UniProtKB/TrEMBL annotation:
Name used for this protein in its record: Binding-protein-dependent transport systems inner membrane component
Entry keyword Cell membrane: yes
GO biological process: transmembrane transport
Species the sequence originates in: Halogranum salarium B-1
Main location: membrane
Membrane topology: Multi-pass membrane protein
PANTHER family associated with the record: INNER MEMBRANE ABC TRANSPORTER PERMEASE PROTEIN YCJP, MALTOSE TRANSPORT SYSTEM PERMEASE-RELATED
SUPFAM superfamilies: MetI-like
Domain of life (superkingdom): Archaea
Length: 279
């Protein structure tokens, strides 16, 4: 081996070693807080206030998980119903709306789309009091359908903006080709356009579910203790209630609430990457 080849081999080996060390360091920074939080859920209350810093609990217990599931049982069901209903309703509104804005022409199209853009920038916190009063009048206050409709204010403008570009970039002759083979305009939309827009629709559904699952402001204002209070609000009550914080219970509830969106993301991540590459 010549001197030049040996120097190149050594520099290449050093580069791989440095890359491996840097990667391990970055992964450790990301994984360690999650691991430490997970281990905290098995720690009894008295160990949180000791002077010793320990990674693993001395006397591990499952009490925190038991209490967390007991406190979040009904709230998790409420969160699932709220997030699922919000997702389905948003798809019924967003998919046809984005398709019309992306592939059809109609009077005032540009100005209606400007209204959607303005809605994206509007501070929704200003609508909390009017919505609460209006929902109370309509009988939607402290109900799951009331939350379904309320979350469309967050979801619909952004989702239409994203999905419109996806529909607009699909080839223009797709519907015409489908109609030549016997499809109507509606069946061409159902059988051709929707399957091609599948990744974007899955991405929008994921974002809708995530918005409804994680929201605190709207759900805390529009629900009461006797109504369909979601899990995020129950977590806040656990954090804010009492003179001392039960960190084992708080971390257990946090992980329980975070598991469903994480599982959903792992399933939808391929569709998410495809949709954002297209847009």
């Amino acid at each position: 081996m010549s001197v030049r080849d040996r120097v190149g081999f050594e520099s290449d080996g050093f580069y791989k070693f440095a890359t491996g060390v840097l990667t391990l360091f970055l992964v450790s920074i990301s994984v360690f807080p999650i691991l430490y939080t997970f281990l905290m859920t098995f720690r009894p209350a008295n160990e949180f206030y000791s002077n010793d810093v320990q990674l693993f609990p001395t006397n591990p217990t499952l009490d925190n998980w038991t209490f967390a599931f007991a406190e979040l049982g009904d709230a998790l069901v409420n969160s699932f119903l709220i997030a699922t209903g919000t997702t389905l309703l948003s798809l019924l509104i967003i998919v046809p709306g984005a398709y019309v804005f992306g592939r059809k022409q109609f009077p005032g199209k540009k100005y209606f789309f400007y209204i959607i853009i303005v809605a994206l920038m509007f501070p929704y916190i200003l609508l909390i009091v009017p919505i609460s009063d209006f929902w109370f009048t309509l009988g939607l206050y402290d109900t799951i359908p009331g939350l379904w409709i309320s979350y469309q204010l967050f979801v619909a403008p952004f989702a239409i903006w994203i999905l419109r570009d996806y529909f607009a970039k699909l080839p223009r002759n797709i519907e015409e080709s489908a109609q030549i083979y016997g499809c109507t305009q509606f069946t061409a939309f159902i059988r051709v356009i929707l399957p091609m827009a599948g990744p974007a629709i899955v991405a929008i559904a994921f974002l809708s579910f995530l918005t409804a699952w994680n929201d605190f402001l709207m759900s805390s204002i529009l629900t009461t203790g006797t109504g369909p209070r979601p899990a995020v609000v129950e977590l806040f009550i656990t954090v804010a209630g009492g003179d001392t914080s039960d960190w084992g219970l708080i971390t257990a509830e946090t992980l329980i609430i975070g598991i469903p969106p994480t599982v959903l993301y792992l399933w939808a991540r391929q569709y998410l990457s495809e949709s954002f590459e297209m847009t």
